Amino acid sequence: MKIEQLYKKINWRSFDKKYPTLKEMEITEEVIAAIDKWASGETRYGILATYIPELKKVNPDLTAIAIGDLCGNRIIFGSGSKIKISAQSVIKPFLYLYALEKGIPPGRISGFEATALSFKSDRILRPDLELKTAEHPMNNAGGISSAGEIANFNDFLKFMRKLTCNPNLKILNKVYDSEMETNHNNRAISNRFVASGRFKDSKHGTKALSNYTKACSLGLTVSDLLTACLVISSGGYDCNNKKIIKRNNAIRVMTAMNTFGMYEESGKITLLVAGARANTTKSSVGGLIININPQVSAFVTYNPLLNSRGNSVYGIHAMIPLNSLLAKSRSLRLSVDQIKQQLEEYNLEESKKVHEEILGLKGENSRIYRVDPKMLKSLGAEYESKMDAIKKSRQMF
User: Fold this and answer.
1) How far is CA 339 from CA 35, 132, 139, 317, in A?
2) pLDDT tens digits for 307-348?
3) What whole-number distance in Å separates Cα of residue 395 and Cα of residue 366?
4) Topology, domain 19-333
5) Phi, psi dihedral angles at 97 (to 5 degrees)
6) What's the pTM value of the predicted model, to 2 decimals?
7) Which of 59, 125, 135, 196 has its CA 20 to 30 A from that of 143?
8) How far apart are CA 242 and CA 107, in angstroms?
């Protein structure tokens, strides 16, 4: 029996259903304001992306939440809700989508299995393994591989303008220049793609790297990103209810986000914020996190203070109650007591790693990081002593 016959026999069909509204999910501006206040208060540690000079200049106190349903309702909230933020890694789902829409075979772009490696790493950097392409579409190698399918960057820009319904979308040139001066690891990945045959020659590799960096440097508001995410959530319909991408490609993108959207801590974060259901998300070192609830809604969060894995501390906290609101009433999630315990353990572990990064900084202004004196005490006398010395020398508090 062929699969087409099987599906006909079991009467399987894909059908549209009534989409829930924000009001029906009891999501109001007052509720979003409460989530923003709580997540801001829980952002007691963090550090800006110090390895990209231009990102060290952003305001670490700005926060934003944008949430919308598939019926045209949306709530945009926060002090950072109107600023243009460089996309950084939240552009990877859209680079992957672009390549798929161009008809590129998924296996040529990358593998599909998550790893325990950081976003900067990929086994393509190990010549002895003789890999031909990236391991996953949501790490840097996957993003560069997707960008290798951009023949003309203006075409990708046009694609993003269509997804965001914003004809004025532009590259933040200062961010682009800053990244091109410091993206040595990404250059190594691009060179490996040339050596492996994924890119046909050095010219192709150089162009792919430049296009990837341009894509990461796109200036987007949280509202722009929300609009684009809702296209994927709906299975391909834009803000005017016009079909603009293929449903199967949207599904591929969301599945990739499920498995590696938060990099090497994807499993841990999923358990914390989504319980037994998938967490369709993607983070970035610029402080943005996008989250999609298929066929229901999407939301975007922003604050640039990062944990040791390059994920927004504010965004991780905000995802917990936001996912609770969007989940079905019968979805299996950890109890509030378990969430509290997991969060305390997670924050203790992550704050230690962030404080270790801060201890290693040389000549940096204290405005680029945040530490919590109370949390330091739980880390032990050695950390408290070291941070006290930094406090005196940099006037942190």
Assistant:
1) 15, 41, 28, 11
2) 999 999 999 999 999 998 887 655 788 899 999 999 999 998
3) 8
4) Beta-lactamase (3.40.710)
5) -60, -45
6) 0.91
7) 59
8) 29
